[in-house]
Amino acid sequence: MLRVLVVTGGPHARSSAGWPAVEFLLAQIRGFRPDVEVVQRALSAPDIVLPPAAYADAVVARAAAGDPAFALSEILIGELETCDLLVITTPIHNFTVPAALKAWIDYVLRIGRTFDATPTGKVGRLKDRPTFVLVTSGGFHQGERANQLDFLSGYLRYALRTVGIDSVNFVYLQGMAYGSEAVAQAIAEGIERIRSLMPAVVT
Ligand SMILES: Cc1cc2nc3c(=O)[nH]c(=O)nc-3n(C[C@H](O)[C@H](O)[C@H](O)COP(=O)(O)O)c2cc1C
């Protein structure tokens, strides 16, 4: 059984402009491995709330994993720990991850639980696993047409590395604000990128 966790970081979830590329990716994965189980985690209210004070206090106090303040964090970490392949699909919001995806990061990166702080830096406790990050954006932040900085990719790569996930592949779906032709082109380019990555990622 190959367990795939799909985390949708933006407000549109499955109605994201980039969802056809996610469906293509999942179909490709099923093509390589018929024994796929897909778990969806939409990062939206009421399930996902911004980390409250009780959570912040429990993190700083290094409270036990069973502390009630860690309930949501434990659920999200459990989903991540038990997946074999991670897919994160997210828009860029003001040059970086949307607030809901940042909240997921704050629940999942937990000192003493998913990483340790050592004198030489933070060391992840989770095993590495193949990861795809599909990034939708209204404009362009990569390549010849880039006219804005991308604070999402480096940050998300660093955050995932902190818990031990290093094998991260980015797929960019850019220019989604430029009409249906631009969207179709972005999806086509994203699909080509997924196709080129697949054989090495899923075996
Ligand atoms: C609050 C907000 C901030 C945004 N910031 C950016 C940005 O910094 N750069 C960009 O290219 N697009 C930006 N966009 C546009 C979205 O990235 C774009 O509409 C994307 O296609 C949405 O994808 P989705 O359908 O997956 O939600 C922003 C959109 C919103 C709602």
Main traits of this protein?
single chain; alpha/beta; Rossmann fold; two-stranded antiparallel sheet; 6 helices; 38% helix; binds flavin mononucleotide
Word description of this protein:
The strands form 2 sheets. A 5-stranded parallel sheet has the order 2-1-3-6-7, sandwiched between helices. It is built from 6 helices and 7 strands; from the N terminus they run βαβααβαβββαβα. The chain is α/β, with parallel strands linked by helices and 203 residues long. The two termini are 13 Å apart. It has one domain (2-201): Rossmann fold. It is 38% helix and 20% strand. The chain is globular. Bound molecules: flavin mononucleotide (FMN). Flavin mononucleotide is lined by residues 10, 12, 16-18, 91-95, 136-139, 148, 176-177.
Brief synopsis:
The chain is α/β, with parallel strands linked by helices and 203 residues long. It is built from six helices and seven strands; from the N terminus they run βαβααβαβββαβα. Strand 6 (131-136), helix 5 and strand 7 form a beta-alpha-beta unit.
Task: Give the SSE map.
Elements: E1 2-8, H1 19-32, E2 36-42, H2 53-60, H3 71-81, E3 85-91, H4 99-108, E4 115-118, E5 121-124, E6 131-136, H5 152-163, E7 168-173, H6 180-201
The structure holds flavin mononucleotide.
Flavin mononucleotide is lined by residues 10, 12, 16-18, 91-95, 136-139, 148, 176-177.
